Amino acid sequence: MSDTPMTADDVLRIAAYKDRSPALEAMVIAYSYHRVAGDLAQHLGKDATNWYCYATWTSKAIGESLDLGPDSPFIMDFSRKMRVPHRFRRVFRAVLLTLLGPSYQLGLALANRAIFLETASLAVNLWNDSPDRYLRVSPESELTPTPPEFLTDLLSEADDRYLRDAAQFLVEARQATDPEDRAELMFGANIALSAYEQARAQKALELVLYRPVRWLTRVSWRSLRSLVTRRPFPRFRLYAARHEDQPWLTRRLEEKWSSLYTRHLFAVQTPLSDIKVGRPLTAPAGVDMAKAWAPIQNEKVRKLAEEFITEDQEASTASVADWVSYPDRMRFIVSYFRVYQHVAELYDVPFAKDVADGLAEEMRRGLVPEAVSGMLARGGRRLYRYPAESDPDAYEMAHFDFEPFLEAIRLDPSAK
Question: What's the pTM?
């Protein structure tokens, strides 16, 4: 790993680069998160894990799930979990690609890229000892052009106070002399960053998990009608509509599918093993659960944790019923942070050396976008012009440029 810390320019260049496949892009981001985690460890030590350790393994898992080629490990693993006979796996892949569609890869990749931009830009500004600002994708700002529809439908609003809290916790953790105090503050920063990014990713998660049902019940027959009549229809609007606004049958099937996926198919990747979220969370080898669940002493960290978990260990570590549910998801994630806080393997490079070297080279590709201050100094309001192609489900996301929608948001760590 490079001895040179990641910079704001590095984060911008990686997030803005548009010519990678979605799978490769997620792997580059995973390696970049690993670099940020190591940079923070230079100031905070490795006695406790920081949020970017977890983001490393999550983004790596996203990259693997975005590889939908003929030899896709994601599809092969999915077919094993669904107990598809080997002779039917080619047909199963074709069906799965139809159900997932291009919005699965492109929507998930865009959300992953935006969250990396926002969370990593916060971390790299900590080198000045005083959190200054972070970059945000701001589709509704008066200073940005009219956004394409999919952008507002992929990024949910999130409370900036969580980023301010995360920055403050990390600054205080660096100043702490007691390892246990530092670990609690880092735990607080982990919670705050996840509270923000999980809220940000809510719409994208719904798009990814609900799309197969919506294709079957709302889009497939309209597509056939569109072929006959040659009249386009707003398919992305059907995919991105709120669950509550769907017809009764679609809502019921979405709930059933999401619950089935959560209980039997979805797992959180770690360097030790994959954690099946449909089962209660247990401590890995070498972790004393009683010690991990010791009362939190820092009042601010305790109050933040209590937004998502209780001191009832069994209730907090219970299985997840539906991964789409933000409260249920955050309960599990915060418990996961608490149990895995001292698992040093989370700092490991998640790739073989030759792969890591290749990703390090990939990180250097592309140009740094125009400075945010320069973008805002142009004045006026430009209108976004859609390309001639009319299918935002694929073309728009594949050719999207973040640059006109970036804003620099000041962080005041003392703000309440």
Answer: 0.87
